[in-house]
Design a protein that fits this description.
Length: 165
């Protein structure tokens, strides 16, 4: 498990969700942090854990970055029910970052996927990953490697327990 990112002041930030499916399906080449433009009821709902980031991806359109497929359930105590759970949320990035990402994404074969959602100083942030899709053989190889590592750790633990007694 990856460590929770730290804020510049050294305090740990609170992770809301990690997109484990993205790490399984994609090879992460580079990561960056982006803020989210949200409505008040969406913030309350996200802080309560009523959201899903599994199907989400980022798209660049008209010089802006958008998070598409990010599902936020309506906040149950909200007075206004006009919030669409699947509306695209704007990602808050600097112009240079958007232009650099547009150049990288135009080469083809790459996609922008949210890897993690967390709270940093009252603001909800998304860690985005510039990713390339894994092939089925790569996924199988990663599974084999994880299984072999797990068995090796078990063997080492069993061996060290045998010495102590």
């Amino acid at each position: 498990m990856k460590p929770v990112p730290e804020s510049p002041s050294g305090r740990a930030v609170r992770a809301l969700a990690t997109n484990r499916r993205a790490f399984r399906d994609y090879q992460v080449l580079e990561t960056l942090e982006a803020g989210l433009e949200l409505r008040g009821s969406e913030v309350k709902s996200i802080r309560g854990g009523h959201f899903s980031v599994n199907e989400a991806y980022a798209r660049l359109a008209d010089g802006q970055a958008w998070l598409v497929g990010f599902h936020v359930n309506p906040y149950e105590f909200s007075r206004v029910d006009t919030c669409d759970p699947l509306r695209p949320k704007r990602l808050l990035l600097h112009r240079r970052e958007i232009e650099r990402l547009a150049g990288r994404l135009s080469t083809g074969g790459l996609t922008l996927v949210p890897l993690k959602l967390y709270v940093r100083r009252r603001h909800i942030k998304a860690e985005l990953g510039l990713c390339r899709g894994k092939r089925t053989e790569d996924k199988r190889e990663a599974l084999r490697r994880r299984t072999a590592d797990r068995e090796a750790e078990r063997a080492i633990a069993a061996h060290s327990r045998g010495r102590r007694s």
